[in-house]
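Blackboard transcription, Thursday session:
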Amino acid sequence: MRRFLAISFTVIALIATYRLTGQPDPKVSPAALHRPTANPDRIILTWSADPATTASITWRTAPSVTKPVVQFAPAEDGAAFVKTATTLPAHSEPLQTDLHLAHYHSATLTGLVPNSPYVYRVGDGFNWSDWNQFRTAAAGPAPLEFIYFGDAQNDIYSLWSRVVRAGFSDAPKARFLLHAGDLINTANKDEQWGEWHNAAGWINRSIPSFPTPGNHEYGGKILNTHWRPQFTLPSNGLPSLPETNYYLDIQGVRVVSLNSNVLQAEQGKWLDQLLSANPNRWTILTFHHPILSTAAGRDNAELRAMWQPIIDKHKVDMVLTGHDHTYGRSNLQTGLSTKQGGTIYVVSVSGPKMYNLEKAPWMARAAEDTQLYQVINIDGDKLTYQARTARGTLYDAFELRKSKNGTNRLTSQVPKIPENRRAK
Ligand SMILES: [Fe+2]
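(Written on the board underneath:)
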């Protein structure tokens, strides 16, 4: 008996030691982590039409959800809107990913009152999201703030998440989040898209996104299969590039997405026409591949030859790009020369992947090994720009003043801190 008790105690002690010394549970598989259910997830607010009177909402469920709806109402101080909300059926499309079959649902709210708060939730009548709140854009020129992110791309949930959250905490009233391409690393990997949605979480449900595709959103010449089901965007660019080449006019600013992966010459012609009839005081372009590169051996002379004369001709105010995994910001440039009245070019990176910087004379400010977000504020004839690091440190800043003839004057506000460079 004594011998039996001794053995029993030893076995119990061994089991306890095994548990306590942290023999881990096996890693949860991507398929389990990113499995769609009847409960809505990957909910994202975008625009596909006028930001003052419409809003588009897209989300994901398991394929069992076949009657998806959005409920929306003008926001109130209390929760009485729950009883009066309008129910709108959503459009559904299936998406077979490398992990699962999912359904993506989308709906566009129309007839909204400009510059007003609204609430919405998505679901199927049984399973509902939270009620999310957003504000429609003002109908004409009005102060506008937005946040611009370069490539997120790698370790998105682990290491990009803090950058999008830092951006939000700095500019919680931002009207949109602009992503300059390479949101993910592997075009059709559902796990990475899941990470991207999870990293921004409810921020994406409250502030519209304005994404342009990078080379990593492409497999060869084919756009990834997630993009169109998961983002409801305008199709007002080239008819062959719906939801990747598009533009929106918001509060006196024309914001244009060029898809720098394909049909560059055709988009150049389209851009020239679009900007020939532009009633907005300010014009911002975004595309992925910079035409002034910050990284060694990545000069895009061909793209620059195609697009820069059009940018110069129409006095585009800013060009926001990514791709080079470093930071570089120009002064006012026309062609390759610096003079008042030209365009500001920015290359930035928000994720953790970093390249070597190749310092060039056009760079008024540059960085290596620095995750950044940029807050851009436009108010009347003044544009203010701030680039901040992942921990919120002001790294770069300037102000543009627009004269009556549309020419900008630049005032540098670069903080007196050293350039972040890689230790040699
Ligand atoms: Fe890229």
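Lecturer's comment: The first helix runs from residue 2 to 20.
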